[in-house]
Amino acid sequence: STPAAIASGLARGTRNGLLIKGGAALETLGKIQTAAFDKTGTLTVGNPQVTDVVGLEDANEMIAKAAAVEQGSSHPLGLAIIAEAERLGLEIPRAFGGSIATPGKGVMSRLKSGFVTVGSPIQAREQGEMPEDLSARILALENEGKTVVVVSEGKRILGVIALRDEPRADAVEGLKKLHGLGIKTVMLTGDNARTATAIASKLGIEAKAELLPDAKLAAISAYKAEGPIAMIGDGINDAPALATASVGIAMGGGTDVALETAEVALLKNRVTGVAELVSLSRATLSNIW
Ligand code: ADP
Ligand code: MG
């Protein structure tokens, strides 16, 4: 019978690390036409490493100041910059009055030396002039698939830090499986277009980049108007996107947070789990009818 088929489908998912909160989510999964992925922590491991440092003045002083600003941030880029400052044994200056984060753009704090911003090159170019050779350097780093952040003090650019985040080992396979099931895939990211394209072309997915949080939601709504869409995110800072999609899937890592924010969680962080969810749903639905 119907409830029995659904119950057995849910149980089968759980045994494979695919936590599905209820029958409605299980049914929707089989009907999705689009799978939209967050980049950082979803298609990538989410543990970026600093690869290049371009200091216009003192590079270590710039890293220390950037780390000071990132102290209040839980963003993967911030954690990586703090880790780099610690690895170099730098003394991290004190930030006064905490930090102000602007999602999708960057973060700012007041240090003894002045207001320091760590943020996207797009944001830095909006704030003021950027030297031509630095701009060229940023483009080259981004074309290598690195994410670049600009460190500024007041209007003065101190330099840039490039970071690389590795794709998940099963990302290519996971996307191929979805394509095999006839599902369109897209990566939605706030990162710049060159970095996003470099990563996306390696993975075999279309990329929509430079999306501020509201633009991510608008993109999901636009796909949803065409047919059911799943959003796959990290479940922590992607809650609105997960909620806007027809079904939200969190890369869970086995945490409780994931299941609170999404209807579905991939406990083992497997990208291939998304296609398995679709297949499980389709098998369950065909048992009903
Ligand atoms: P994603 O879509 O990969 O999750 P976000 O929307 O979080 O990216 O961020 C987009 C861009 O904004 C980053 O690539 C970075 O340039 C900048 N940014 C956001 N938060 C921070 C931060 N805490 N420190 C430095 N840069 C940041
Ligand atoms: Mg994010």
TrEMBL record:
It is found in: Cell membrane; Membrane. Belongs to the cation transport ATPase (P-type) (TC 3.A.3) family. Type IB subfamily. This is P-type Zn(2+) transporter. It comes from Lacibacterium aquatile. The lineage of its organism: Bacteria, Pseudomonadati, Pseudomonadota, Alphaproteobacteria, Rhodospirillales.
